[in-house]
Inverse folding.
């Protein structure tokens, strides 16, 4: 920041700027601007001129981050989108006036809708120990994962459903599994429950519900013909699984089906040096968050169902190739793992477990080992019927 910009950080300089900025408008517009600037000042706990001076002193990157925090606060206070947009426009206009006055040499750019949506999702996930950070590519990754599993199983489920009318997908991710159930059963309604929203466009019979599985399912007893849950071992603490499965059974109607699908925790039939190092890091991180790093959930999903009173529990395990050597399934899973592990690397580097940039080389070596060793993992599906 230049000496002039530094000097301009005093509230008195920006008090004069605000006075000039407001003087050129009608009384109605002036009141609207004053209200918007006062709202930002309240957010910062400062006088209006001091709050604007601080925003300008932050610079373009930190100023953008500050505005992102402000937008999140406005959303949490249930401000209308039009109000939020207007308040950001006012701050941009003030910043433009500061630039024209020579107080700063940069342009203030507010966060876009994607940044705001991502930040809101991260806020929603704050109480959940999810191991893989949510990010812009997570929807694509989860869809790749879905297509790999569907191709490996030659189906979206194994339970003998008949014609369900009401289906619950607990931990719905992108919603793709539920979308395909809507297509397969045109008379059914599918409820996709997750903490963060999936893909915005979905079939009319698909209903998204935002809720935290760890706080209990927001449904009455005996509601769903089929309850499905897949790959939550990285999101649900090990100690919470028995109660969660009981809750899944609770909302299933008598005679309805419950199906759980999980994979082992970084376990492969062959383990190269890079894969071993990655597994060591991931398991340690999972343990610190109370998550499953030992494949306990993978081994126990059928026992969880039986302990919850489910009858006729079946378990099936299917081998999954990982790497280009394994055809389409192997290629999809290699890409899925690469994206997931790259996100995990950000967490490990932030925690000091790896040096900056070290993880990229590790992932590259892991990808080579998939094909050199013709690596496989597996998936387990357990399903059963709630007693009449």
């Amino acid at each position: 920041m230049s000496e002039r910009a530094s000097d301009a950080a005093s509230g008195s300089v920006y008090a004069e700027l605000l006075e000039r900025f407001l003087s050129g408008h009608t009384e109605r517009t002036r009141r609207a601007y004053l209200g918007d600037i006062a709202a930002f000042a309240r957010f910062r706990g400062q006088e209006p001129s001091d709050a604007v001076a601080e925003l300008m002193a932050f610079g373009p990157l930190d100023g953008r981050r500050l505005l992102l925090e402000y937008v999140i606060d406005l959303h949490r206070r249930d401000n209308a989108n039009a109000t939020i947009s207007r308040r950001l426009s006012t701050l941009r206009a003030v910043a433009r006036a500061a630039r024209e006055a020579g107080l700063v040499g940069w342009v203030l750019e507010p966060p876009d809708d994607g940044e705001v949506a991502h930040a809101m999702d991260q806020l929603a996930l704050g109480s959940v120990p999810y191991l893989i950070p949510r990010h812009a590519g997570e929807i694509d990754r989860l869809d790749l994962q879905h297509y790999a599993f569907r191709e490996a199983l030659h189906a979206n489920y194994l339970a003998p459903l008949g014609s369900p009318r009401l289906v619950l997908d607990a931990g719905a991710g992108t919603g793709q599994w539920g979308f395909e159930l809507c297509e397969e059963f045109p008379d059914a309604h599918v409820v996709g429950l997750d903490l963060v929203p999936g893909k915005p466009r979905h079939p009319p019979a698909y209903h998204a519900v935002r809720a935290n599985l760890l706080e209990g399912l927001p449904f009455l007893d005996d509601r769903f013909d089929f309850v499905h849950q897949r790959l939550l071992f990285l999101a649900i603490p090990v100690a919470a699984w028995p109660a969660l499965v009981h809750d899944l059974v609770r909302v299933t109607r008598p005679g309805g089906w419950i199906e759980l699908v999980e994979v082992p925790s970084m376990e492969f039939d062959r383990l190269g040096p890079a894969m071993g190092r990655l597994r060591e890091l991931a398991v340690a991180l999972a343990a610190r968050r109370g998550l499953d790093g030992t494949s306990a959930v993978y081994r126990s999903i059928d026992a969880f169902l039986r302990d919850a009173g489910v009858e006729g529990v079946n378990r099936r395990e299917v081998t999954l190739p990982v790497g280009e050597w394994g055809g389409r399934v192997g290629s999809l899973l290699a890409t899925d793992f690469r994206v997931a592990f790259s996100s995990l690397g950000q967490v490990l580097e932030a925690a000091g477990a790896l040096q900056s940039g070290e993880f990229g080389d590790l992932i590259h070596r892991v990808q080579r080992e998939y094909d050199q060793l013709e690596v496989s993992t597996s998936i387990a599906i357990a399903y059963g019927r709630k007693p009449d």
User: Anything to note?
Assistant: The beta strands are 166-170, 189-194, 206-210, 224-230, 252-262, 311-321, 376-385.
